[in-house]
Amino acid sequence: MIEIKDVSKRYGGKLAVDGLSFNVRPGxxxxxLGPNGAGKSTTMRxxxxxxxxxxxxxTIDGRRYNEFKRxxxxxxxxxxxxxxxxxxxxxxxxxxxxxxxxMRRGRVDAVLEQVGLTEVASKHVGGxxxxxxxxxxxxxxxxxxxxxLMFDEPVNGLDPQGVRWVRGLFRSLAAEGRTVLVSSHxxxxxxxxxxxxxxxxxxxxxxxxxxxxxxxxxxxxxILVRTPYGGDLARLLxxxxxxxxxxxxxxxxxxxxxxxxxxxxxxxAAAHGLAIHExxxxxxxxxxxxxxxxxxSVEYRASSGRDGSAEVVDAQAATGxxx
Length: 323
What we know:
By secondary structure, the protein is an alpha/beta fold. Helix content is 32%, strand content 27%. It is built from 11 helices and 15 strands.
């Protein structure tokens, strides 16, 4: 298990991580989300001992990363797929990592086959596409068959088939009882991959919850009702204390209702003989829930200037500092 305990990290005048605490547990894929500048990469670097926290503690199974004598057997990580010597072949790159941790050479062949790079193993990495470099980085993370795996934006550059393969890989690793932490901006992909979410903004924890619970929190409890008797039903529901908004103007329009349950809406309609053609919860997508719950934590906002060009502003400076 990865444990982050009250961790803070500052770079000069910039507070990148601010009192952050959460755990990443085995047996599930944990999505690590947040707007740009939220502190995700800094947190992952601190887990791997690449940066030292100014305060707090980061451990893996109760130990700091630099305490492991052969760390690739304990933790596999992909933070930057392009951070590879372009003059080496894929095989040479993996063999150097394997030797550094006393691994048998057979593991190199095994992971090359697992990520689909066997046919290009002798080619220089400098000629690889970004997607191929991502596969090579994943292979390096898998070398020691570690129990803890971390990936930062692992599907960048992958084609649809590659994205699907990565999704299946992560879920299979979690099913084996491994701890899998994945940071990504592709929320539609996280919705299909992650079991649990850790969401941060401005270096602080926003949510530490299951995907279903996170989406529910961003759905605002709206219920959609389609009926040919929209006006009549709306008046009856308002009398029940509900808030009703018409979201479609067609003859059999859709009502958006909050403040009552689906069961109560059905009971009211039935009691007054009003037919309902559709009744369902207005479930937000993961992207919609993310945008709603992180709105106050976006550090860089884009706005259109008078000439139509995009203007990037620092929201923190514009509001006089952190909120």
